[in-house]
Design brief:
Elements (H helix, E strand, L loop, with lengths): L1 H43 L8 H13 L3 H14 L2 H24 L4 H21 L4 H13 L19 H7 L14
Length: 190
């Protein structure tokens, strides 16, 4: 009796297993096709049609390598809007790295010191923003320290107010604007 029941259930069970295996193979094929298409888009820096954040991030990296900075920054901004927390963090760090590299390159050119200062300030702000979200990112922390060595933050000394002063004294104003440290040769970002 049990053997007869087993013989009746065996063909439908085998058919069900075959259908499940076929569905799994079809799903793997579809996923592989999507990944191949995403890789092609990334390699060609082609704008993704579906706005997949991972593809946008990879495209931004390729655009940056090609020297198309404005387009790369646009894609990084889209990743910040569309991506999950890890992708948003990667975009922030990559933008800060871009500003740091550009600031160092511009600083080497004569007559572009003001532009280099702005780019380095943007890099430091980007690293700080990324570190507020993920303080354990040692690469971002290291690059922030590098940017700090290139352009230290100026902190005013003797900045104490009790709250009842109308204006700062002249000595405090001069002290606040003073540049006191010479920057040594930076290490890192080779």
């Amino acid at each position: 009796m049990a053997a007869l029941r087993l013989r009746r259930l065996l063909p439908p069970a085998a058919l069900l297993l075959a259908l499940l295996a076929g569905a799994a193979a079809l799903e793997r094929t579809w996923t592989g096709w999507q990944q191949t298409r995403s890789n092609e888009q990334m390699a060609q820096a082609e704008p993704p049609r579906d706005g997949v954040p991972r593809v946008l991030l990879a495209r931004a990296i390729v655009l940056e390598q090609q020297g198309r900075i404005e387009e790369a920054l646009s894609d990084y901004a889209e990743v910040e809007v569309l991506g999950d927390a890890a992708l948003r963090h990667a975009a922030r760090v990559n933008v800060a790295n871009l500003y740091l590299r550009r600031g160092i390159a511009v600083a080497r050119d004569d007559g572009h010191a003001q532009r280099a200062l702005v780019l380095l300030q943007l890099a430091k702000a980007g690293y700080r923003r990324a570190l507020r979200q993920r303080p354990d990112d040692w690469d971002a922390r290291y690059n922030l320290e590098l940017a700090q060595r290139l352009l230290p933050d100026l902190e005013p000394r003797n900045w104490r107010r009790s709250g009842d002063e109308a204006e700062l004294s002249e000595a405090m104003k001069k002290d606040k604007a003073a540049w006191t440290d010479m920057v040594g040769q930076p290490r890192g970002m080779h």
